[in-house]
Amino acid sequence: MKKLINDPKSVVDESVQGFGLAHADLVSVNPDPLFVTRSGAPVPGKVGLLSGGGSGHEPLHAGYVGIGMLDAAVPGAVFTSPTPDQILPATLAVDSGAGVVHIVKNYTGDVLNFEMAAELAEAEGVQVRTVLVNDDVAVEDSLYTAGRRGVGGTVLVEKIAGAAAERGDGLDAVTEIGRRVNANVRTMGVALAACTVPHAGVPSFELADNEVEIGIGIHGEPGRHRIAMENADSITERLLAPVLADLQLQSGEKVLLFVNGMGGTPLSELYIVYRHAAAVLAEAGLVIERSLVGNYITALEMQGCSISVLRLDDELTALWDAPVNTAALRWGI
Amino acid sequence: MRTTLDTEWAIAWLQAAADAVAEHRVELSELDRAIGDGDHGENLDRGFSAIAAKLREEAPATPGAAFKLAAMTLMSKVGGAAGPLYGTAFLRAATAVGEATELDPVLLAGALTAARDGVVLRGKAEPGDKTMVDAWTPAVDAAKSAVAAGADVTSVLAAAAAAAEAGATATDPLTARKGRASYLGERSAGHRDPGAASSALILRAAADTA
Q1: Where is each DhaL domain found (chain B) (predicted)?
Q2: Residues of chain A positioned with their CB less than 8 A from the CB of B76
Q3: What CATH number is given to the structural domain containing B111?
Q4: CB A243 within 8 A of CB A188
Q5: What pLDDT, in 10s, does the model give residues B21-56?
């Protein structure tokens, strides 16, 4: 496996350093403990928005630090949660006194580390609220699992809650908006080929040339089942069916359709998926008000994609349209 | 017969635990590769090596201070779920023993109980969920029984370590209901839980140094 790196141990540090140099107008990088903050943070009077998680999902999360989205991103080692000694100072750095919202993807390690950091921040007098993202319909949500994983919906939560914070919403209101997005978004992914974690050096799982894994997460963890390779339209239908079933959308409802690349699939293929997904939604009588297509939450160089559907209301649509200026999402500025 | 354990033991325990984790690093990661993401040995080794390095620089004044040093180091160095879980365990143990310089059997069993309760509170796992709780709970029960029977500190830890090892082995057939292994559902059966295995190693180190 060839990778464009210098040393597996320095992948995250060197990548974040490069990110900071490339986007010096938008962000500042704190090297030790490692975290990224929006230039000029904390913004007086504004609720701080912080997210973080294992690295390897770029542009998530540092790519979303900037005006109208995150105030801070805390990168952990590749596919490993960051630690409280990173999350705490990042939280303190973006608190203007209005409090900080942590956006946390639902993985045991992330939940525990953010929970500890939130307790420590509260002890230092910072109000912290948590929005847990768990939009992955591939995992059964029951007492017998750690619950659904946070995947594609995370990008939408960060954009929309970010816009709410930017327009001046208070701590509870921003939290409510974030939770509302999470409650109305569902995602399902597919992998055509695995990714290789730099320090592991071998692919995280094996897929034969004629196989795909349906219901893949963003770390190469197992999905729902493995099937023989099919064409793009059939796979699109397989991904959308559980998403639509779970959301229980009614004809006439407005949605945002998000086709996300996992890092190793060309944009042209993502548009082929989008094309058929749009047709399936139209047939179900749904109105696609907004769309997003591209590599926004990845699993290193994994081949595959995920489809997210978000049920929109007028307020969520307006917040989606609000100006944003980050390394990976930029409009209206 | 040893009536109490002191700071010297607490330091020796943490160093022995670091040695044990380093020695079993690959084995722990192999267990994790089967039902998780394959980094438990690496992550824990990073944390315990850092503890050993700090202990070489400065000797804590009490067992509680040694536990607190371990807790803070594990929380900042390990990441994943294991960092907060072990960090909380050691932090609760530190609180339970307070400023005491000597730990008698009752205080020792109290520290183990507090550590286990911390893991349960943080991870919200119950016995039988195929997690480190399945090593800690039998260890605490065995330690309490030993105290009730009038055992000395060495025997209390020996009973706890043996029960933790049996508890870890008993996770083999279980289906995981917490943590990343739970995504596998029934496919997690037939593998030992890595957290239970590392807990047994750490408690064995405690017994061996007493």
Answers
A1: 8-208
A2: 83-85
A3: 1.25.40.340
A4: yes
A5: 999 999 998 898 888 777 899 889 999 999 999 999
pTM score over 0.90: no
Is residue A21 in some structural domain? yes
Phi, psi (deg, nearest 5) at residue A4: -85, 70
Beta bridge partners of B146: none
pLDDT for A143 equals 56
Contacts of A143 in chain B (CB under 8 A): 177
Catalytic residue among A23, A61, A102, A219: A219
Q: Name A318's Cβ contacts closer than 8 Å, sequence gap at least 6.
A: none
Number of domains in chain B: 1
Q: Average pLDDT, stretch B139-163?
A: 97
Q: Which contacts qualify for A138-144: CB closer than 8 Å, 24 or more apart? A: A138/A188, A138/A189, A138/A214, A138/A215, A138/A216, A138/A217, A138/A223, A138/A224, A138/A242, A139/A215, A139/A217, A139/B183, A140/B185, A143/B177, A144/B175, A144/B177, A144/B182, A144/B185
Contact assignment for A200 to B187 by CB distance below 8 Å: no
Chain B hits for A145, Cβ within 8 Å: 177, 182-183, 185
Which range, of A139-143, A201-205, B90-94, B141-145, averages the lowest pLDDT? A139-143
**Residue A61 a catalytic site member:** no
Can you give the residue range of the structural domain that contains B72? 7-209
Contact residues on chain A for B38, CB-CB shorter than 8 A: 200
Q: Which helix (H) or strand (E) holds A30?
A: strand A27-30
- Say yes or no: B84 contacts chain A, CB-CB below 8 A: yes
Question: Number of residue pairs across A and B with CB atoms under 8 Å?
Answer: 77
User: Please, what is the Cα angle at A159 between A114 and A214, to 5 degrees?
Assistant: 75
Q: Are residues A199 and A220 in the same domain?
A: yes
The residues with which A331 forms a beta bridge, in sequence order, are A324
| Count of structural domains, chain A | 2
Based on the residue annotation, tell me whether A276 is a catalytic residue of this protein.
Answer: no
Q: Do A81 and B80 touch (CB under 8 A)?
A: yes
Across the interface, of A108, A219, A222, the residue whose CB is closest to B179 is A108
**From A77, A112, A145, residue closest to B183, measured CB to CB:** A145
Q: What percent of chain A has pLDDT over 90?
A: 84
pLDDT in tens, B159-196: 999 999 999 999 999 999 888 788 777 888 999 999 99
